[in-house]
Structure formats: C-alpha cells, structure tokens
Amino acid sequence: MRKALDAVYLASGWLAAFFIAAIALVVIAQVSLNLIDRISTLIRGTAIGLTIPSYADFTGFFLAAASFLALAHSLRDGAHIRVTILISHLSSKVALALEYWCLAVAAAISCYFTWYTGALVIESYSFNDLSPGMIAVPLWIPQTAMLVGLAILSIALIDQLLSLFWGRQPTYLDTGEGVLVGDESEDSADRTATEKHHG
C-alpha cells in the first residue's frame, strides 16, 4: 500500500511538471511567432498574423492543472510553507495534538473541495459548458485535472494523519524541520543529562 501511494504522489508530481513544461513550450512558441510577425512588419510593412489560437486559455488551464496536481507531491516532500514559530515553542504533547488538529482540518477541507469540484465537473459536463476563447474547450476537461489533484491531496493528507496516528513521523517533517514522534523520550533524556550536569 505504501509503495502504491508513493507511486501515485510521484506520478502526480510528474504530471504537474509536464504541464509546467507545456506552459513554457506554448509561451516560447507564441513569442517566436510574435517575433516572426515583427520581422515581417519591418521587412514587408505588414505582419503575417501568426498566433496560437487561445494560447492564453491553454496556458491558464495548464497552470491550474500543474498547481493542483503538484499539491500532494509537495506535501509528501515537505515543500509546503509551514509557519512553525508557535509550534516550535510548545511542549511535545501539545505540538503533537496541534499537528493532529491541523492535519484533520486540512483533510476535511480538502475532502470538501474535492466533493465540490466533482459536482462542478459533473455540472459542466451536463450543461456542456465551454471556454469563451477562439477554441471552445469543454470546461470539464481542465476541471478534471483540478479534481484529480484535490483527490490525491485529500488522500495524502489522510495518509499523513494516519501515519501520525500509528506513531510514524509525517514525511513532510523528514526535511530536518523537527521531530514530533518520539520527542517526549528525547526531551526527558535531555532533561536528565542537564540535571546530572548541574547536580
């Protein structure tokens, strides 16, 4: 099960990277076409009118897909921004309880948005909603990428919550930020060493 989940998170990250690369390629292609038009204007006095139809729409869709598909992989690798100024000054028990609360709330919110986005995808598909650009794209297609990303994020958050419940260190803390699981024994060992030193 662990290997399967890690494979899903990794595949999601690679998909996000693919869409980022696709954005770069589309932008480079459009800039190149604009450059050709500019050169044509300087030489012939008129532009050829080269453009990628709805390129702004496509890059927007690719950006949304990349953003949502990268969420679970980023969480797994500890790349999300965490403000630890409060939790770093708490005792290990309180910090652990707060971590439980944060993961539970995040998982609940993510599951809610997954459900809501799923309903949005079904609605867009039912009503055949289309993008307003030169190329009319059925909106359920880019929305599905958002749905998949949110679903994988929900799984990842529940996975981290269960790992914490089973006494394992969350993977997003494996980056040297700190240790939650096993803190108490280390704290007591440190206190014992300090007492011996002062005694």
From TrEMBL:
It comes from the Bacteria. The chain crosses the membrane at residues 7-32, 52-73, 94-115, 135-158. Residues 55-165 form the Tripartite ATP-independent periplasmic transporters DctQ component domain. InterPro entries: DctQ, TRAP_DctQ. It is found in: Cell inner membrane. Pfam families: DctQ (PF04290). It is a multi-pass membrane protein. Keywords: Cell inner membrane, Cell membrane, Membrane, Transmembrane, Transmembrane helix, Transport. Belongs to the TRAP transporter small permease family. This is Membrane protein. It comes from Desulfofustis limnaeus.
